[in-house]
Write a structure and sequence with these properties.
175 residues; alpha/beta; Glutaredoxin; 2 domains; five-stranded mixed β-sheet; 5 strands
Length: 175
Amino acid sequence: MTAASDRDRRVRRLALAVVVFCLGTVAATVVLRPGAPPPRTATGYAVGEIIDVPREWYAGQPTVFFFVRHDCLACQNAAGVLKRLRSSLAHGDIAVRLVTPETAPEAQRTFAVDLGFTLPTEHMVSDLPGTRLTTVPSVVVVGADGTVLLESLVPFVTREGDELLEQILSSIAGA
């Protein structure tokens, strides 16, 4: 064996040891972190759990919640898809709610109207940091009892918005 191949073999072994050490450190950090919450979805909600918004916002009927902020660039980029989804859900037995934070109430109301939501019946104001929500723009579909049936980020692309609409409708149909 040449000195160069022996050196290459040692370097590969050292690199493998470093990778194993790093993976072990990350795994130990995740597992041993005291009081760590279980892994969450991108939206912060998981299918099967009860949504943490006021019950009167959904009681008695399936409800689609859109969580947005007027000053969120992703929400502004998703505005076209949000408008189409709102329009597509306008006719039916499905309640639709737009949930915005308490900050900048006039700007939030203007954004809600621009997206096609009716004030005040479809625009809900909430202390979003007081909920499990982690990301906007998000959509969460719940059954009449508040059980999460579907959760998703709102896409920016119309085609993906159409796919999301199909998922929303099928999740409600299956409830």
